[in-house]
Amino acid sequence: MTMEHARAAVAGKPKVVFVLGATATGKSKLAIALAKRFNGEVINADKIQVHAGAPIITNKVTEEEQDGVRTTSSACCRPTPSSPRRTSGARRSPPSPAWSPPAASRSSPAAPTRDGAAFRARHDVLFIWADAAPELLEWYVALRVDDMVARGLVAEARAAFDAAGAGRGDDVDYSRGLRRAIGLPEMHAYLVAEREGAGAGEADELAALLARAVREIKDNTCRLARVQVGKIRRLSRLDGWDVRRVDVTPVFARMADGTACHHQTWKTLVWEPCEEMVMHFLETPAAPTAFSRRVHHGDRGRETGRAVEAVEAA
């Protein structure tokens, strides 16, 4: 953040920028780029990524991708085999990574609590919503899952499976902690069959189980994306919430066409508008708003607080 940006922030409420979006829309890339450009830090509030382990399955950014930008709330919880268990056939709702706030000033606190109205009363907030056409997002989700498999998703799932005691025949609870992550429950049937030992005649069955697991991972990730978009759309319609939609569809379209210029498309159609948007936001002094008074009027304050809770909820 430049001195001009710092003076603007001091003149009013502290400024915080959130990057929202369904899974696979490029929130982390955009958040890191904004934080680097404006000398901020990334506060990652993905509820699954706070757990240590399974970096491929949970899509954690690598040190190289962080590009020297400070990030917080990463890999702080370790799963244990003693977690409460239920039968392995029971299913869980897909986790919903809700907030990825980047480019916050160094004095800004971590992600807002469930009292979203109180947070808004104390901070000037900008929401950037990275969105894409469903059909192209689903195409990219499938591509990303295939890449995750190539990078070691199966080995990570196997390690989590063994750590949970499933290799000893124990039931596994897929409703809590890291094991809620899409990519672990779907692999269960394959890993059980693998542990039981497949002879030469059963290799085809194992391959079919793995293929089915990968299809389920893709389907559940797409289902998660639809749920997330619905939550963000509801938030964007609330009065007093400055949500700016940025269409990343052209980037996926260039990738689907095999066009090598999709990086330039991202720079022109995503990065440059967002950079300008955040620059203007940081340079504009935050004036007292009706929102801070609304906190004390009950209904609307509770409504906005519930909106934050809804987006954060799994």
Automatic annotation (TrEMBL):
Catalytic activity: dimethylallyl diphosphate + ATP = N(6)-(dimethylallyl)adenosine 5'-triphosphate + diphosphate; dimethylallyl diphosphate + ADP = N(6)-(dimethylallyl)adenosine 5'-diphosphate + diphosphate
GO molecular function, one term: ATP/ADP dimethylallyltransferase activity
Keyword Ion transport belongs to the record: no
Keywords attached to this entry: ATP-binding, Cytokinin biosynthesis, Nucleotide-binding, Transferase, Transit peptide
Bias (Low complexity) ranges: 71-93, 101-114
Span list, region Disordered: 61-115
Stored SUPFAM superfamilies: P-loop containing nucleoside triphosphate hydrolases
GO cellular component assignments: mitochondrion
InterPro entries: Dimethylallyltransferase, P-loop_NTPase
EC id: 2.5.1.112
Domain of life of the source: Eukaryota
Enzyme class: transferase
Keyword Heme: no
A biological-process GO annotation: cytokinin biosynthetic process
Pfam families in the cross-refs: IPPT, IPT
Family: Belongs to the IPP transferase family.
Described purpose of this protein according to its UniProt entry: Involved in cytokinin biosynthesis. Catalyzes the transfer of an isopentenyl group from dimethylallyl diphosphate (DMAPP) to ATP and ADP.
Protein name: adenylate dimethylallyltransferase (ADP/ATP-dependent)
Gene source species: Eragrostis curvula
Lineage, top ranks: Eukaryota, Viridiplantae, Streptophyta, Embryophyta, Tracheophyta
